[in-house]
Write a structure and sequence with these properties.
The complex is a heterodimer.
Chain A lengths: L9 H6 L4 H11 L5 H10 L2 H4 L4 H4 L9 E3 L6 E6 L2 E9 L1 H6 L1 H17 L4 E11 L7 H19 L3 E8 L8 E11 L14 E6 L9 H4 L20 H15 L4 E6 L4 H13 L2 E5 L12 H6 L5 E6 L4 H10 L3 E9 L3 E6 L2 E7 H6 L28 H9 L8 H4 L10 E3 L6 E4 L6 E7 L2 H6 L1 H18 L3 E10 L6 H20 L4 E7 L3 E2 L2 E2 L3 E10 L16 E5 L10 H7 L11 H16 L5 E4 L4 H13 L3 E3 L17 H6 L6 E5 L2 H11 L3 E7 L3 E3 L6 E2 H17 L1
Parallel strand pairs in A: 4-5, 9-12, 17-18, 24-27
Antiparallel strand pairs in A: 1-2, 2-3, 3-6, 4-6, 7-10, 7-11, 8-10, 9-11, 12-13, 14-15, 15-16, 16-21, 17-21, 19-20, 22-25, 22-26, 23-25, 24-26, 27-28
Helix pairs in contact in A: 7-8, 7-10, 8-10, 10-13, 15-25, 18-19, 18-21, 21-24
Chain B lengths: L2 E5 L6 H16 L5 E4 L10 E4 L19 H11 L4 E4 L1 H9 L5 E3 L7 E9 L15 E8 L3 E3 L2 H9 L3 E6 L18 E5 L5 E4 L17 H11 L1
Parallel strand pairs in B: 1-2, 1-3, 3-4, 4-11
Antiparallel strand pairs in B: 5-8, 6-7, 6-9, 9-10, 10-11
C-alpha cells in the first residue's frame, strides 16, 4: 500500500476518542502508524458504544441461559423459543445522545436501528416499546425534547407499520442535560429460520442493500461515547436522518429474500456503519474481507473512504450470499426499488482490505483488532447505604384524598395518553392489550396466543441502592407480565449510566448489574440481549442510574388473560402480598412530603416468585376478574387506576392488625398502608373472595380482602370519597396541559 | 365474490384488511380470500371489490396519496371504478381516492398537527349503500382512527352538494351521536369521517373498520361493513 504521508498527530488521535495507551496498542497491532482511515476504524471499533470496554467484565456475570434461549447476547438480538415452531426475537437499545441533540431524528433513527436488529435475524417486527426519561418539566428544554422525541418515534414507527404498544415516560432533574431514549422491538420468526452475522465461505460475495451512503452520522458511535458540554449543539451533524419508508421496503425485501436459501449471513449497518458490520461478520466467521469502495452506493460524489466506512446513514444492510445467488437477490431488492451492490468478497487472509480505484487504502488485521479490543476493570466505589425512613416518622397527610389526587397528576404517574395516542398502537390488528396497562399484549398472528411485553425501571430506587434498584426493575417487569396472566420468559436490558471513569458511577453500574443478575437467576428470567449507554453526563453531572429492563412473556390463551379494569360492581378487592408500608424512596415521599431520601423497598425474590405464581394461576383459572401490580404510589394509586379503567368506584376498608395485610404484627399507619411501595404485591378482584383467600393460604401467600367494587366514587380509609370524574381529571390533565403550556 | 387489495410499497394495513374481509367471506360464503395486487400491476384479474388499504403508499413525504394516485395499479382502479366496480379506501386509501378524483375533497394535517391513534365514535349517515347495509342509519359505531392527515376539506358548495346527495357516509360523533367539535379528532369539515361518490359505489373512510372486526381486539363494530359487502357482492 501507499506509505502514509504522515502519522496521525496526537491531536488527531485524541479527537478520535483514543487514549495514548490505546494508540500504542494500535501501533503494536499494525506494526506501523495507521493512516487516517485506519485510525477512524480503530476509533469506532474501540469506542465504548461498540466495544463495551467498561461494562464487559460485569455483563459476563448476567445469567443468559435457559431452556427457551436460542440465542443469548452477542447476536443482533436475543432469540427465545415460544413454542409452535416460533421464536420471539427482541432487544432494547439506546439512542440517548443523538436524541438530546436532535430529538425528532435522534428518536426516529433509534426506532429504525432497533427494528433492523430484529429483522436482520429473520423476524417480522410485531411490537415496539419506548422507555423515555426527560429532565425536570420546569427545565426550558424539556417540553421541546419530549415533543420532538414522541413525534420522532411516531413518525418512524407509524410509517413502517409496527405498532408501538408500550413503554414508560419519566421526569427527573437528573436528566436535564441527558435525556434517555431506549427503544425496544419484538419480532417473531420461524424457530428454524434464524439468521446470524457469522460469515462463511471464502470467495462468497458481500452485498450492500438499502439506502445510499451519505455523509451523515460520521462518528456517531464516538459521539455517543463522550460526555456533553457547552459545545454539544455543534455535534448536530453527527446525528443521522431517518427514512421510515425505506425501512419498510427493507423489512419486506429482506424477509422476502430470507424465505429463500440465498443468504449466508446478514448484518445491519448501525453504529459505525460499514466498518462495524463487515468487521463483525468476518470476525465471527474467522475470515477476512476485501471491499471495493468504488462500488458502495453513495448519495454524493467524491466521498472519501473515511466517510464511506464511518458513515452512519440509516436503512442499510450487508449480506453474504451463497455463490450464484446474486441475480435472485438483486431481483428482490429491485422489486422494492432498493439499492443492491456487490461490494466485495470474503477472503481467508483474516484482514480487512479496503480498495479504491484498485489501490489499497486501508489494511487492518481483523481478529487481533477485535480480540485486543480494550476491556477495563475500572475502579468502582459502592454507593453508600442510605438511612431508612420509617412510616411512623412521617406525619399522615392532612387530606388523604388530596394526596392521592396529587400523585395521580404527578408527571411520573399521570396518564401518558398524550404520548401513546401519537403512536399507531393498533396496526397489524393484533394488539389485544393496549398501552396503559401493566403489560402490552400482542397476539401471535393467526393464533390464540399472545406475547406480553413491558419495560421497567425505577431510577430513584437505583440511585438510593443500585443493587436493590437493579433487582427491583427485574422484579417489577416480571410482576407486570404476571399481572396480565403471562408466563415471564426472558429480558433485554438497557443500562444507562454516567461516566464510568468515575468510581461512584462505576459503582452504580456494578451494583445494578449485581441486582439484575440476582433477580434474573431467582426468577428464571435470562438476559438474552442488551445495550449499554455510558457517558450520559453533562459538565460532570451524571444521570440517575437507569438500568431499564424490557421483558417478554407468553400467554397461551388470550381468553384467559386479564387487565386492570374493575369489571363489575359488588366484587371483592383482594390485596395479595405483604404490606409493611415502606415509604423510603417512595413517590409519596417525593411528591407529597417533598423529600428524596431513604432506602428503596426490599426485594424478596422468593416471595416475589411465590406471590406471582399464585396470581398467575388464579388468572389462568379464571378465578379473578381483574389484576394490577402494585408499584409507584402503592395500593391507593393502583385502586384509582383500576377504578378509572373500569369506570367503577370502590369502597376500601381500613386494614386491621393481623389480617394478613400487615406483617402479622400491628398494621402500618394508614398513609403508609395506602402509599407504601412494598414489593411482590398485586390487587385482584373476584366475585367471591373466599376461594381466592383459600388458595393464598394454601400457597403460603399473604392476602386480604380490603374492599368492594361499585358506585362512582373511590372511598379510601381516612379520606373523603373521590369521584371518578375527579380521578380522571387529575390523571389525564397534567400532560396535555403541560405540553400546551 | 372476488376481491383485490392493492398493495403499495408502503401499505401497512394491507394484511389487516385482507384478514377482516377474508373472515367475512369465509363466514358468509364458506370460502374466499382477497387477492393481493402489487402496485406495479396494471393488469389484474376481474374482481367484485377493490380495497385500497391504510399505510404510507410511497412514504407520503409529498402529499398523502399524491404519488399513489399515479401508479399503474391505480390507473386501472380508476378505470374500473368509473365502470362501476366498487372501491373501498381506508385511511391512506381514502387519501389516494381524493387524489385520483374518484372522491371529492382533500386532506390537511390534523388540526392538532399531531398523529392521532384512538377509538372514536362515528355515526352512520345512511344505511342505503353497499357498504353500510348492515348498519342502521344513525347507528353509532366505535372504530379506531390512526392518521396524521385526516382533516377532510372541501369548499362550502361542495360540502352542501355532498349533504344534498347523501354522499356523507360517516361523521365523527360523541356518546349520544352529537357531531360537535369535541367529537372531531382531526378538524374535518362538518365532522366528515367517510364519503361516497355520487353513485355510492366508492367509499373512502378515515377510521379503520378492519381493526375492530374481531371481539378479541375489544370490539367488532367494523365487522358488519365487511359482512355487508360480501352479502351484497356475492
Amino acid at each position: 500500500m501507499k506509505p502514509n504521508e504522515r502519522a496521525p498527530t496526537p491531536e488527531i488521535v485524541t479527537e478520535h476518542g483514543l487514549s495514548a495507551a490505546e494508540y500504542d496498542l494500535i501501533l503494536d497491532l499494525m506494526g506501523r502508524a495507521p493512516n487516517l482511515l485506519e485510525l477512524g476504524i480503530f476509533s469506532v471499533m474501540w469506542s465504548e458504544h461498540c466495544s463495551y470496554k467498561s461494562s464487559k467484565k460485569w455483563l459476563k456475570t448476567l445469567p443468559t441461559e435457559g431452556p427457551r434461549v436460542i440465542h443469548g447476547p452477542g447476536e443482533n438480538a436475543g432469540v427465545i423459543d415460544i413454542g409452535d415452531g416460533l421464536a420471539a426475537v427482541f432487544k432494547m437499545e439506546s439512542h440517548n445522545h443523538p436524541s438530546f441533540i436532535e430529538p425528532y431524528q435522534g428518536a426516529a433513527t433509534g426506532v429504525g436501528g432497533i427494528l433492523r436488529d430484529v429483522f436482520t435475524m429473520g423476524a417480522r417486527p410485531v411490537a415496539n416499546l419506548n422507555a423515555l426519561r426527560f429532565g425536570d418539566p420546569a427545565h426550558p428544554k424539556t417540553r421541546h425534547l419530549l415533543a420532538g422525541v414522541v413525534a420522532g418515534i411516531g413518525g418512524y414507527g407509524n410509517c413502517v407499520g409496527v405498532p408501538t404498544v408500550g413503554g414508560e415516560v419519566n421526569f427527573d432533574p437528573g436528566y436535564d442535560g441527558n435525556i434517555l431514549v431506549n427503544a425496544m422491538t419484538v419480532g417473531i420468526a420461524p424457530k428454524d429460520r434464524i439468521f446470524t452475522s457469522e460469515a462463511s465461505g471464502v470467495g462468497n460475495p458481500i452485498v450492500y442493500v438499502g439506502s445510499k451512503t451519505g455523509r451523515d452520522g460520521i462518528h456517531g458511535a464516538t459521539m455517543a461515547s463522550a460526555e456533553f458540554d457547552e459545545e454539544t449543539d455543534e455535534k448536530r451533524p453527527t446525528v443521522q436522518v431517518g427514512d421510515p419508508f425505506t425501512e419498510k421496503l427493507l423489512i419486506e425485501a429482506c424477509l422476502e429474500l430470507m424465505a429463500t436459501d440465498a443468504i449466508v449471513a446478514i448484518q445491519d449497518m448501525g453504529a459505525a456503519g460499514l466498518t462495524c458490520s463487515t468487521f463483525e461478520m468476518a470476525s465471527k466467521g474467522g475470515l477476512g474481507v476485501e471491499l471495493d469502495l468504488d462500488r458502495v452506493p453513495c448519495r454524493e460524489e467524491g466521498m472519501t473512504p473515511y466517510e464511506m466506512m464511518l458513515s452512519e446513514s440509516q436503512e442499510r444492510m450487508v449480506m453474504v450470499l451463497q455463490p450464484g445467488k446474486e441475480t435472485l437477490a438483486r431481483a428482490v431488492f429491485e422489486k422494492w426499488d432498493l439499492d443492491f451492490a456487490v461490494i466485495g468478497r470474503l477472503t481467508d487472509t483474516g484482514r480487512m482490505v479496503l480498495k479504491l480505484n484498485g489501490e489499497v487504502v486501508g489494511d487492518l488485521p481483523i481478529d487481533p483488532l477485535a480480540e485486543a479490543s480494550p476491556e477495563y476493570d475500572r475502579p468502582w466505589a459502592a454507593t453508600p447505604k442510605p438511612a431508612d425512613v420509617t412510616p411512623e416518622s412521617l406525619a399522615p397527610p392532612e387530606d388523604t384524598a388530596q394526596a392521592l389526587l396529587r400523585l395521580l397528576g404527578a408527571p411520573d404517574l399521570c396518564s401518558k395518553r398524550w404520548v401513546w395516542e401519537q403512536y399507531d398502537h393498533m396496526v397489524m390488528a393484533d394488539t389485544v392489550g393496549r398501552p396503559g396497562g401493566d403489560a402490552a399484549l400482542v397476539r401471535i398472528h393467526g393464533s390464540e396466543r399472545a406475547l406480553a411485553i413491558t419495560t421497567d425501571c425505577t431510577p430513584r430506587y437505583c440511585q438510593a441502592s443500585p443493587r436493590a434498584g437493579g433487582a427491583q426493575a427485574v422484579a417489577e417487569a416480571w410482576r407486570n407480565l404476571t399481572a396480565v396472566g403471562a408466563q415471564p420468559l426472558a429480558v433485554t436490558d438497557n443500562l444507562n449510566f454516567g461516566n464510568p471513569e468515575r468510581p461512584e458511577i462505576m459503582g452504580q453500574l456494578v451494583g445494578c448489574v449485581e441486582g439484575i443478575a440476582e433477580a434474573c437467576r431467582a426468577l428464571d428470567f435470562p438476559v438474552v440481549s442488551g445495550n449499554v449507554s455510558l457517558y450520559n453526563e453533562t459538565n460532570g453531572k451524571g444521570i440517575p442510574p437507569t438500568p431499564v429492563i424490557g421483558a417478554v412473556g407468553l400467554v397461551d390463551d388470550i381468553s384467559r388473560a386479564t387487565d386492570l379494569a374493575f369489571k363489575a360492581a359488588g366484587e371483592a378487592i383482594i390485596l395479595v402480598g405483604e404490606t409493611r408500608g415502606h415509604l423510603g424512596a417512595s413517590i409519596y415521599l417525593r411528591e407529597v412530603v417533598g423529600r428524596r431520601e431513604g432506602a428503596p423497598p426490599p426485594v424478596d425474590l422468593a416471595i416475589e416468585r411465590r406471590n406471582g405464581d399464585l396470581v398467575r394461576g388464579l388468572i389462568r383459572d379464571g378465578r379473578v376478574s381483574a389484576c394490577h401490580d402494585l408499584s409507584d404510589g402503592g395500593v391507593a394509586l393502583a385502586l384509582a387506576e383500576m377504578a378509572l379503567a373500569g369506570r367503577l368506584g370502590a369502597a376500601i376498608e381500613a386494614p386491621q392488625a393481623k389480617n394478613g395485610a400487615g406483617n402479622g404484627a400491628a398494621a402500618p399507619p394508614i398513609h403508609a398502608w395506602l402509599f407504601g411501595e412494598d414489593q411482590g404485591r398485586y390487587l385482584v378482584t373476584a366475585r367471591e373472595a373466599e376461594p381466592v383467600l383459600e388458595a393464598a393460604r394454601q400457597a403460603g401467600v399473604a392476602a386480604a380482602r380490603i374492599g368492594v367494587t361499585g358506585g362512582d366514587v373511590l372511598t379510601l380509609p381516612g379520606g373523603r370519597p373521590i369521584s371518578l370524574g375527579e380521578i380522571e381529571a387529575a390523571h389525564e390533565s397534567w400532560l396535555p396541559a403541560y405540553m400546551n403550556g | 365474490m372476488k376481491a383485490a387489495v392493492i398493495v403499495f410499497p408502503g401499505s401497512n394495513c394491507d394484511r389487516d384488511v385482507q384478514v377482516a374481509l377474508g373472515q367475512s367471506m369465509r363466514a358468509l360464503r364458506g370460502k374466499g380470500e382477497p387477492a393481493m395486487v402489487w402496485h406495479k400491476e396494471a393488469d389484474f384479474e376481474k374482481v367484485d371489490l377493490i380495497v385500497l388499504p391504510g399505510g404510507f403508499a410511497y412514504g407520503d413525504y409529498l402529499r398523502c396519496g399524491a404519488m399513489a394516485a399515479h401508479s399503474p395499479a391505480m390507473r386501472e382502479v380508476v378505470r374500473r371504478a368509473k365502470k362501476g366496480v366498487p372501491v373501498l379506501g381506508i385511511c391512506n386509501g381514502f387519501q389516494v381516492l381524493t387524489e385520483t378524483g374518484l372522491l371529492p375533497g382533500a386532506f390537511l394535517p390534523n388540526a392538532s398537527l399531531k398523529f392521532v391513534c384512538r377509538d372514536v365514535h362515528i355515526r352512520v349517515e345512511t344505511s342505503q349503500s353497499l357498504f353500510t347495509s348492515r348498519y342502521e342509519t344513525g347507528q353509532r359505531l366505535r372504530i379506531p382512527v390512526a392518521h396524521h392527515d385526516g382533516n377532510y376539506v372541501a369548499d362550502e358548495d361542495e360540502l352542501d352538494r355532498l349533504e344534498e346527495r347523501g354522499q356523507i357516509a360517516f361523521r365523527y360523533c360523541g356518546k349520544n351521536g352529537e357531531t360537535d367539535a369535541e367529537a372531531n379528532p382531526n378538524g374535518a369539515a362538518r365532522n366528515i369521517a367517510g364519503v361516497f361518490n355520487e353513485e355510492k359505489t366508492v367509499l373512502g373512510m378515515m377510521p379503520h373498520p378492519e381493526r375492530l372486526a374481531d371481539p378479541a381486539l375489544s370490539g367488532s363494530d367494523g365487522r358488519p361493513l365487511f359482512d355487508g359487502l360480501v352479502e351484497a357482492l356475492s
